[in-house]
Amino acid sequence: MNTNWITRDVIAGALIVAIGLVFAFILIPIGVDEPRRVKYAALSPAYYPRIVAIILVVIGAAVVARAVLRPTKTGTDSEAHPAAALRLLGISAILVAFATLLTPLGFIVASTLALFAAIRLGGEQRIHVNAAISIILPVLLHFFFLKVARIPIPLGVLKPVLEGV
Amino acid sequence: MDFFDVLQSAFGLFATWQNVLVLGLGVVIGTFVGAIPGMTTPMAVALTLPFTFTLHPVTGILLLLGVYKGGIYGGSITAILINAPGTPAASCTVLDGYPLAKRGEARRALDIALYASCVADFISNISLILFAGVLAGFALAFGSPEVFTLIMFSLTIIAGVSGDQLLKGLGSAGLGLLLATVGLDLVYGTNRFVFGDVNLMSGLNFIPVLIGLFALPEIIAYYGRREIAREHNPLAGVGATFADFRRCLKTIIRGSLIGVILGAIPGIGGAPSAFLSYSEARRTSRTPEKFGTGEIEGVAAAESGNNGVAGATMIPLLALGIPGDIITAIILGAFMIHGLRPGPLLFQDSLPLIYALFLGIMLSSMYLLIVGKISIRLISRVADIPHRLLFPVVLVLCVFGAYAVNNTIFDVTVMFMMGGVGFAMLRLNIPAAPFLIAFILGPLLEDNFRQSLLLSRGDWLIFFSSTICWVFWGLTAMVIGLTVWSNVRRA
Question: pTM for this structure?
Fold first, then answer.
């Protein structure tokens, strides 16, 4: 099967259409609580999102139509890293782990681990430079937000050590 | 309150050591970030925003304005030294700045870029002070139908920030409008897309959305790219002379005025202004053939056009409450976070605050000159910071910044999710700026849309009931027509 017509533009347009349809036929009916009596249709809480969702479907369809009728050439990315896919997978894993560990470990420990892993993945070979940045930055940010901005940052596992400091 | 009372109150609001210090700090941060290729000024403003929460509104907004102005100037440094514009608006500066640096005249180019930036910024600030109040006075007569049509017109800036991806830009704006409807309904108070989660009842906060859309995708994308070592021209040669400045003055003033006019129109931005100023300088030059080969007037034209928009984009923001570009859209959000709503009512209720901002904005031009003169050597090395260290640091700043909004992990989760959305948009060439602008203007658009229909008992003709409405519909149609025409012509 020839799949040359499936360009980024077609995927983008199809996604926009899909989002519009999901909103119009699934999310708005189940996610918007409409009052029993609405004076005018235009005042309903679902009216405005429904208009936007329909417009979105039309725009998405136009993006697809344009992409199919007048495809644009997609060149190769000369700046792409040779191990781009692996590195992108790596940073995605780091981000997921970072988001997951923030609550149990606290911001300082989770940030230190994420920072160390992200710098290493970026290609920094000097462990001492990596470790110094990874430890100092989260601690500095913690104390800035706590002491200057007066915003307490969750300490997680460091609570017994740093509480009251 | 007469003018002098207002000025006295404004001076009292402005003249604190915090304001003076923070404004300078903002210019320094902006200049540094602007000088780093890959880091954008909206990203810098977004990351600075969480640090303003506990500051006085004037102090917080001055910090952001400092970052904005510094960022615009900073982009020219790497444009001249390493042929890599730090900001899109500085791409015109490359044309003559880089050849000058290659010829060993980097210092002269940077000096003229700085002088042109400062003069243009000053002229732009004066225009802001002169015109914002007049426009705000006119806008006091607006009711909800007029405000609705005004926002419809301001949404046409999407055309300006979408580049050559207009249709996708519109789709992106539609997604932003939909996301803005999450939370309690404005009229009936019923739930919309809340799905039983109390965190969603007040809607999504714009800062996690902003950071997620503008900072995280760049960080993720970095891991897919190679780190390219660029040829770095040293800060060689002598600085610009007074004769250089005098030769460029006419070009600088013309570029500044072009910047003011284009900057005051929502959606145009710095890059077209810089290129228009450059082409005008070339057209009127006695030696047009020298442009593009290292002509000092070319640098002056690009930088004055680019910086001339900085104050002018604040005119529609302060007077009408509509952003002129993506950065002023972020600053609009900052005003809201501090409990202020830019627009005619702000001029009526908080005039001293506006004047205090004006005083700070005027001072920012001087800071730009001082920062540029003193720290140019240091700033010129900023571009050498390896991205493998820089981007992970930015990631941690994003997480702390998103958390600081409401002290909830929920906002951090929103930021991560929007980062994923933003990266997908980046890969699919869907511009993110229209999403954010629509997300910020969405609630205002819907509120005035429904209020108007409530007033007219559901009659849509209310949106055509006054001359002002017709003027805005006309302007909207004109911008759409021009955009479609230029797209058809390009194709």
Answer: 0.81
Residue in this structure with the two tokens 């781009």, named with its chain if needed: A84
| Domain, as residue range, for A42 | 8-69
Contacts of A15 in chain B (CB under 8 A): 428
The radius of gyration of chain A from alpha carbons, rounded to an integer in Å, stands at 24
Whether B255 and B116 have beta carbons less than 8 Å apart is answered as: yes
A21 and A65 co-located in one domain: yes
Strands B191-192 and B183-184: antiparallel
| A24 and A92 inside one domain | no
Question: Is residue B234 situated within a structural domain?
Answer: no
> Three-state secondary structure along A68-101?
HHCCCCCCCCCCECCCHHHHHHHHHHHHHHHHHH
**Measured between beta carbons, which residues in chain B are less than 8 angstroms from residue A70?**
491
Mutation choice for A interface testing from B400, B447, B451, B456 by most A CBs within 10 A = B400
Residue-by-residue pLDDT tens, chain A, 165 positions: 455 667 888 999 999 999 999 999 999 999 998 887 777 777 889 999 999 999 999 999 999 998 888 777 665 666 788 888 999 999 999 999 999 999 999 999 999 999 999 999 998 889 999 999 999 999 999 988 888 778 888 988 888 888 777
Q: Tell whether B235 is covered by a domain.
A: no
Please check whether residues A63 and A93 belong to one and the same domain: no
Q: Do A50 and A90 reside in the same domain of the chain?
A: no
Domain holding B429, by residue range, is: 3-229+240-490
